[in-house]
Amino acid sequence: MQKEELIHSLREKFPEKIVSAFQKVKRENFLPDHLKSYAYEDMALPLEEGSTISQPKTISFMLELLELKQNQKILEIGSGSGYVLALLSEIIKNGKIYGMEIKKTLAINSKKLLEEDSNIEIFNRSGFDGLPEFAPFDRILISASCKDMRVPYNLTEQLKDKGILVAPVRESVFQIKKQNGKLKEKEFKGFAFVPLRE
Question: Which of 92, 117, 152, 177 is the 20 to 30 Å CA partner of 66?
Answer without folding.
Answer: 117
